[in-house]
Amino acid sequence: MSEAVLARPAAVSLRLRPSSGLLLVLGLLLLWEISARTGMVDSPNWPPFLHVLAALARDTVSGEIPLLVGSTLARMFAGLAAGTLAGVAAGLIFGASRLVRRLLGPTVELIRPIPIPAIIPPLVLFLGLDDAMKVTVAAVTAFFPVLTNTAQGLRAVEADQLAMARSFGVPAHRRLLRVTLPAILPYVLAGLRVALALALVTTVVAEMIAGEQGVGHYLVLMQFAGRAEEMYAAVLVLALLGYGLNRGFVLLERRLIGWFYATGRDG
Amino acid sequence: MRAERLLAPLPGLLFLALLLLVLEWAVGEGLIRRALMPPPSAIWEVLRDLLLSGDVLPPLAATLRLVLIGFALGSAAGVALGTAMGWWGAAYRLLEPLVEMLRPIPKAALVPPLMLFLGIGDMMKITSVALAVTFPVLVNTLQGVRGVDRVLLDSARTHGWGTGRALRHVVLPAALPFILAGMRTSLGLALIIAVLSEMLTGQGGLGFLILDMQRSFLIRQMYAWLVILALVGLALNALFAWAEARALHWQQRQ
After folding, report:
1. pTM of the shown model
2. A26/B159 Cα distance (integer angstroms)
3. Interface residue B7 vs chain A (CB under 8 A)
4. For residue B116, which residues of chain A lie inside 8 Å, CB to CB?
5. Per-residue DSSP letters for B57-101?
């Protein structure tokens, strides 16, 4: 899940030297393994951890899991791209115009708190069970955090910079491109980081509730089929995806807006 | 001044009313298929009946119960663990790898396994909500506790304050803005997971009803419950914002 915008991404380092924390994790995994094998927890829902890893390896090599992950990610990114573009555009208009803010504000505030899973049933009516519905779910997820952050960023753009650009005779479209957009980029990215974690959740949720696509559907299918090993393998895949996406985003963010942190403006 | 503040949302509300009127007209003209989007007036009739008959209350109470209990338990766990990890280096070293492993799991993915162990009752749903709430609160609490001004802590020690007193009167108040920011994120997640777990288990409150009405082609009912859920989300957010502003009144004044 995501931390609040307030929280900077923690620099996570992969330390392999034995620490109490690593031992705890290994100990818990060992306990899982032993409890499942010796019948301490005698349940078909509690397979040994190694069997879960084996199922993961099997389905990865067979190509089933890569295919599912690919289809989930494709829908998620398509939705993220659309939602981000729409969010930035709407955020710029919202941030720039008090009138628009006053006119549309209450409507946005009324729609925003609807939990995303609840909009899936009506979207199914309009868009069906497949790609169009799921991409829209991801897009709606991304739209609101990006909108809020863009509008906030726009208000934080230093008036001095804009005034200077104006007095140097920089035309309006170049001011937008060269001054405003770079200045709001850190805010947009902060919104996008929240959106990224949420979009993975909502895309998977949409797959769980409707249709027969992606990792989410696989997870629920395995639960119904009573194939616990595959089910846990799917949870593991999603955990890795969540971790990988967040790490990737942090790296991207440091490349794109290293200057923002370097000038210490994030405090 | 007061009248101006009361009038401020007026243009926005008028716009919303206009939007509904346009929708009513478009559905009436057949521009939008009635089977997909009934006119707002028809949804309002269902909504009014639900409200007047009191039928709205049992599902509403069921969902609110999940959200509130799960939110409270998850927040308490997050604050306790985050404070311990931020204060004691040993606790941090012990728990950090485990937290970093569990945190990226989309908590929605835990609902199916939890259903296997805890069934489809409230126990499972509350656990799911609490798990989703714990981690953002934990991470923010940790950050807040670590960011406490050293000078404040040193002066507490100079005055001979023990750990308990310093935690209660220095560390937690200083970390409060962070904790509340984490809780604000978590409140939205709590609603998402509550609705999802109601949908997946096929029983319970608002989430189940919205999905069930769609599958039964009771489209007006589906929209009516959706409106109720939106209002619940709005009310919970507003309530939290109000509580946050009260808890942080000293921060605003600075």
Report:
1. 0.86
2. 42
3. no
4. 45, 223, 228, 231
5. HHHHHHHHHHHHHHHHHHHHHHHHHHHHHHH-HHHHHHHHHHHHH
Q: Are B75 and B186 in contact (CB under 8 A)?
A: yes
Q: Which among B96, B107, B139 has CB closest to A21? A: B96
Question: What band does A8 get if pLDDT is binned at 50, 70 and 90?
Answer: very low
Cα dist. A251→A122, A205, A242, A257, B149 in Å? 37, 27, 15, 10, 29
Residues A205 and B124: their CA atoms lie apart, in Å, by 17
Q: Assess contact for A116 and B188: CB atoms under 8 A.
A: no
8 A C-beta contact, residue A133 and residue A127: yes
Nearest to B143 among A7, A121, A246 (CB): A7
Contact residues, chain B, for A149 at CB < 8 Å = none
Which residues, at least 6 apart from B5, have a Cβ–Cβ distance to it below 8 Å?
none
Give me the CATH topology for the region A48-262: MetI-like fold (1.10.3720)
Element (H, E) at B2: helix B2-7
Q: For B59-107, write each residue's pLDDT tens digit.
A: 999 999 999 999 999 999 999 999 999 999 899 999 999 998 888 888 8
The minimum CA-CA distance between B105 and chain A, rounded to whole Å, is: 4
- ipTM confidence: 0.88
Flag if A24 and B101 touch (Cβ within 8 Å): no
Domain B49-253 has CATH 2.60.40.10: no
Q: Which H/E stretch holds residue A23?
A: helix A20-37
